[in-house]
Amino acid sequence: MRYIDFDKTQAFTTLSALTREGVHFDYAAELTAERIRSAVAPMAGGLSYSFAAKPVTKNVLAALQALADEQELIAKYRALLDGDMMNTGERRKALHHLLRGQLGTDVIADGKNLGDFYKQELARFSRFADDVHAGAVTGSTGKRFTHAVQIGIGGSDLGPRALYLALEQWAAVEGSRKLTAKFISNVDPDDASAVLASTPLEETVFVLVSKSGTTQETLANELFVKEKLKAAGLDPSRHIVAVTSETSPLAHNPAYLDSFYIDDYIGGRYSSTSGVGGVILSLSFGAGVFKQILEGAHEADALALESDILKNASLLDALIGVWERNFLGFPYTAALPYSQALSRFPAHLQQLDMESNGKRVNRNGQPVGYATGPVVFGEPGTNGQHSFYQLLHQGTDIVPLQFIGFVESQRGDDVTVDGSSSQTKLKANLAAQITAFAKGKTDADPNKEFTGKRPSSLIFGKRLTPHALGALLAHFENKVMFQGFVWNINSFDQEGVQLGKALTKKVLAGGSGDAALEAYSRLLDI
Amino acid sequence: MRYIDFDKTQAFTTLSALTREGVHFDYAAELTAERIRSAVAPMAGGLSYSFAAKPVTKNVLAALQALADEQELIAKYRALLDGDMMNTGERRKALHHLLRGQLGTDVIADGKNLGDFYKQELARFSRFADDVHAGAVTGSTGKRFTHAVQIGIGGSDLGPRALYLALEQWAAVEGSRKLTAKFISNVDPDDASAVLASTPLEETVFVLVSKSGTTQETLANELFVKEKLKAAGLDPSRHIVAVTSETSPLAHNPAYLDSFYIDDYIGGRYSSTSGVGGVILSLSFGAGVFKQILEGAHEADALALESDILKNASLLDALIGVWERNFLGFPYTAALPYSQALSRFPAHLQQLDMESNGKRVNRNGQPVGYATGPVVFGEPGTNGQHSFYQLLHQGTDIVPLQFIGFVESQRGDDVTVDGSSSQTKLKANLAAQITAFAKGKTDADPNKEFTGKRPSSLIFGKRLTPHALGALLAHFENKVMFQGFVWNINSFDQEGVQLGKALTKKVLAGGSGDAALEAYSRLLDI
């Protein structure tokens, strides 16, 4: 396999020559009913990916297919599935797909079959959740657990939290609400203090998540929790389980009720489908619900092996993103779910995308000569319509948009006002926004004019279920992976977090030796 | 007064000529202890604005001062305070400053003194909150109110919600927690349904907020609430107060327990210091706490009259933002509060900034030839450090950063791990990040290299109190206003929301006559 920089490919030259086709794409003429009907790629979990309102002509699509072929994107994905070393910086495999099922060869490392290891841990924490639900495992006073609190930050917080919120209401109406989950992440003491003050400690199981077992914020918050438990007369070792790697100080530690393991091949932002997300989600909704998430994700992973870009939504989404980033010059993407349940899904996507592809060197450590990952931000619709959409419609720059919507609500509880239900209004707004962004509107008053030409895609499905959610999660993971392959960067490391950590240690050690660091420390009265 | 486009000013030419001073600003050499000590502008509420790590030389600062003078930014602010027509598109005044106190002449309109009108409404809803707290006003069964639920969207949601979350923990430890607040905003029926299912309706007062009284989402959610109240055997007219304009269908309506009024001169995103934020905050924390927010905001408004940019933090912040946007070419800004209490403050700033200045035409409706408002996004630190900071440190593009931090936590509840409290760790991380972003680090391994040169500012203070929060809120309002003056745009309208509204109505009316709109409606099974 050949790993070359994007701007050294033939496809880069071809796409450069096509830039005008994108810039001058005539949305008003092109966005026909036929295009909207047919420009849809299938996704897993009953979802579909509509790209009708993206500035891609037949020529552009052909060039993107040629790019996928030339950069051997599917072959690289297969290599990753087989356990080849993708995480070049630190020479690590990236095996999150294997958490959901096996699509490649057996992956043997550290003397074991890792697929078997992941299955075994899944079985272990599924059983633990079952035991908690059955009352076979209780807190130190014998009371049943009614609450679960995750202690973790970054990938140990954003993904699990987004997935919990995505299913909380679904579970309520489907009879799958088991425990109520909360989350402690920030080292700001107000975070842990506030959560603990409003949680019934006697009935709470804490899920302490740190792969390395050395995360500063998480260890500080662990002590916070332990002190409150002790002050309440409870035994912390009966109220905390750990999710960590087997080599971490948290592993095999009698200080915890139980421990569940991941390994170095599961990156934080890709760990929602491991015990990092699995323990809290299984406790909250039952192990069966978590397995439905895994099934949806596995289906999406299998579909991502398809080499025809029109049949592979995550690949197509990735390539259109590259087209917009590198040739049309848009430095951001807005993620806009028309679903209150996905209120924190954009925050997860923000980490997933920006931490994976916010890189300026290629796999070999040489600076690249083109833009890589964009800034990702977003809020749910229709809320955002009454907020930042003004700039999206009439600002001086163009922001590509990624919409998500569902035919049905989760709770099925609705009202009819002026002849339509709220769910219908929600969907009508979504259809209207896509059309408005693409086609715009002329007006004699330029302040009321909409220039349109704002590209968007739409992921849509019947209802946000665990199965659909798993597919949605994996879609974006695979999209980001394919973009990393195109850009020839390592999407699975995060060296950019190290300098801040090192300087923080210096400050806390009392003498940093850096005049700026010391002067800022004085401003903050450290 | 002269309203001219930014690129027609002498200052624009001067700043253009200085671009290289910004691009080549030598952070490593310039970021001395002396600069960090002295590059601080005073703010209201005991806050300070540090701009040491911004790429501004003495020459640049002088040119920015000249820009402020040439574009008559203070005179334009004074005119706005005096009630001159700033909202040119719809010919409306912008009077949110007058909610906090009077800094200009009396503003007479619609046959009344508007300062008096705002004071009278403040007094009315303060008394209402007092009555609720005293048990003199109760729900229809005579039970005391323990919960308040805001029904509103956009400016009727984001600002009030951000302020509520900002003070919830402060109030808990200061003995100022009166009612627990919740918020319903989205037209997605799952939003209202979930909030109502988890709220004790008998003890809940709803605050229905819509200036026009015609907001689609808010009216749908009002009916949602009324139906649930009736189903619970409660009388809606005893559980709902309205905040609206006197000309709206909600005004003087016996369907509500009481009504409080704003007028057309208070824009949604500027309405947190009116009854839009005031009713829910007074109910939650007491009228006295809300008045402290107003005092902090009024102090900030007074300080913003200072013509020396080094003594006027909101003006300086605005001008540095213009420098970064128009000359250094950065199309985004990240808002990064190191305070869990400010978890939703970035979402409010996102609306405030992007809805105000996301404009492509000037005050006279002519397209401008320069970039206006940037994309604004953000999450609290340290959480963001474990997420999107990778791109901020090592991405291919530069994102200017706006940090916020406090010396003390709100709750004062803390633990010591490895010799430092969590609050100290929080601050050490903040100092470390600013330094790391500015100065970077060389490394033999390019993947571990940080190029630095990432500009940031820091707003800091002792503790996030209501007074400080008011000052912080007004700082950003005034910053955005000054930028609008520089760009010669109208920061107080939002025509960009209209097209989506119109197309939504067409869809809901059943026949849109637009093939694209109908095709998307079919995808979503409308």
Detailed description of the structure:
Two copies of one chain form a homodimer. Chain A starts with 9 loop residues before the first helix and ends with a helix. Chain A folds into three domains: 6-96 and 308-488, Glucose-6-phosphate isomerase like protein, domain 1 (Rossmann fold, 3-Layer(aba) Sandwich); 109-294, Rossmann fold, CATH 3.40.50.10490; 499-526, no CATH class. The first copy, chain A, has 526 residues and is of the alpha/beta class. Chain A has helices at 10-17, 19-23, 27-30, 33-38, 58-70, 73-81, 114-134, 158-174, 189-197, 216-231, 275-285, 287-303, 313-327, 345-357, 389-394, 422-439, 466-487, 498-508, 515-523; strands at 40-42, 48-50, 108-109, 112-113, 147-151, 180-184, 204-209, 240-245, 258-262, 332-338, 375-377, 401-406, 416-417, 420-421, 456-461. In chain A, the strands form four sheets. A six-stranded mixed β-sheet of chain A has the order 1-2-15-12-10-11, sandwiched between helices. In chain A, strands 6-5-7-8-9 form a five-stranded parallel β-sheet, sandwiched between helices. At the A-B interface, α4, α8, α9, α10 and α14 of A face α4, α8, α9, α10 and α14 of B.
